[in-house]
Amino acid sequence: MTGIRTRCLLLVSAALAAGAASVPAAEPEDPAAAAVPYDVMRRTAVVEVYQACKDSVVNIGASRPDPGKPKVRQTEYASGVVLHPAGYILTNAHLLRQDGDIMVGFDGDGEFPARLVAADEQRDLAVLKIDAGRPLKPIRLGRSQGLLVGERVVTMGNPFGMGLTVAEGIVSAIGRNTRSEYTFYRDMIQTDATTNPGSSGGPLLNVSGEMVGVNTTKKLGADNIAFAIPVDRVRETLPEVLAVEERFGFVLGLEVATLGPARVTRVAKGSPAAKAGIRVGDVVTRLGDEDIQADLDVHLSLVGVRGGEPLEMRVLRKGRFETFTVTPRAVPLRPAEVAADLEPGLQRLTYRGEWKRLPAFEGLEPTRTEKVRGFDLGPARGQDGVALVFRGYVDVPADGVYAFYLESDDGARLRIGDRVVVPEAPDGEDGRRRGFIPLKAGKHPVAVEYLEIRGKERLEVSWHGPGQRRKPVPAVVLFRDAP
Asked: Quick check: is 124 catalytic?
């Protein structure tokens, strides 16, 4: 796709020159030959982008039973792009806010069931995995830094489930902030290219066929005002969304550069990577069974890795390829506590005061202490300048790595034992945050700290673990010390 504009201009110039050299009134001797310049002139930059990217853009459908009509299934449509030949698909997380069966399809080339690998509602990014039975063609990732207002762009997606659809427009603005019903978006690309429901998750492309953004939302009630997540932010934050070491409970101990080749930028002292001989400056070219072309491939190739299982790693070092065997270290499961004399529910402590961050509760006296069934704000609803602490135990059903999620408006934090699993947001921003912890089956001390400064009150505590999707932590697994 490099040089599409130059190539098109040269072809058009050649066609015009050929036309000027001919006799206008004469019929061409070979009608087929005369049709070639016309076909060349029709093959615009948008046509080139479509041809180059159509096999890397997917249609997504998430279907679930209608709550009022169990025999009727509702389907929500979205779009996505291929990130890796092994079948990893990037899309928006808001498609997955409700449970459902996910299907991924290529235009005119069948559908495949997909499983969720990772999702981050705050960033509105998700990664799916399909098994297409063949290597897939990844989208080419460009750079969003340096985008020009007025620059031509192309969108591809699946509006209203109609199938692969192409539109063109321009970059209308950069650095826009906007809010949707799902989350608040910062520093977005604004475009006038047509975007409709179902287009979310599809690529925003430059005329070289490189993805420069992920189409995400549009301004309701307005014409031709759509927004895309800049691709540079996707490349920088996707490793955090995947969180492969925390999610699968192992330690590898290396970091690679973003926005380019998988160059090792850090090797932790005493880590499995260090013990294997990996050095800063090495460029990872193969990990396990997967070839590595860029930084994101490293994180995707580690999905599903287990501690203690050796991995072959090939690197480029000073112009030569070298192969090492790295054995990720398994993170031990935190043992459950022997807890007796428990009863269902939690203890809720209420504090009053004026804070900008979660206070140090150890030095405060609660104004109220009571027993509650779950993480309910109770009398704190409608109140400003209030902090709550929920204490008790969570009964973990099976051994494995668990993710805990907090959603609040002004501040919240979750601890398991003495470990902070979900920290307070660094700048007090609202939204959903998460953390991972490996746990043994049984009861573990849990504490949730919550702060309401002013405005709307919101607290949601959810989790997922082995064999279960994310859902609110149910009251049946919560316990407190009996009197």
From this structure: yes
pLDDT (tens digit per residue) in 404-431: 999 988 889 999 999 999 999 876 455 6
Residue 33: band (very low, low, confident or very high) from pLDDT cuts 50, 70, 90: low
Q: Are 110 and 73 in contact (CB under 8 A)?
A: no
Cα 395 to Cα 355: distance, rounded to the nearest angstrom: 32
pLDDT band (50, 70, 90) for residue 49: very high
Q: Which of 84, 94, 299, 444 is catalytic?
A: 94
Element containing residue 235 per DSSP (H, E):
helix 231-242
> Choosing from 79, 144, 199, 200, which is the catalytic residue?
200
Of the candidates 120, 124, 295, 297, the residue annotated as catalytic is 124
Q: Which two tokens stand for residue 105?
A: 């399809």
- The full length of the chain comes to 483
pLDDT band at 245 (very low <50, low <70, confident <90, very high): very high
> Catalytic: 200?
yes
Whether the CB-CB separation of 106 and 55 falls below 8 Å is answered with yes
The type of residue at 239 is P
Q: Which domains does the chain have, with CATH numbers?
A: 4-43 (no CATH), 55-242 (2.40.10.120), 251-330 (2.30.42.10), 342-481 (2.60.120.1560)
Q: How far, in Å, CA of 213 to CA of 204, rounded?
A: 5
Is the C-alpha dihedral spanning 15, 21, 23, 28 positive or negative? negative
pTM here is 0.85
Phi and psi at 10, nearest 5°, equal -65, -40
Q: pLDDT grade, residue 2 (50/70/90)?
A: very low
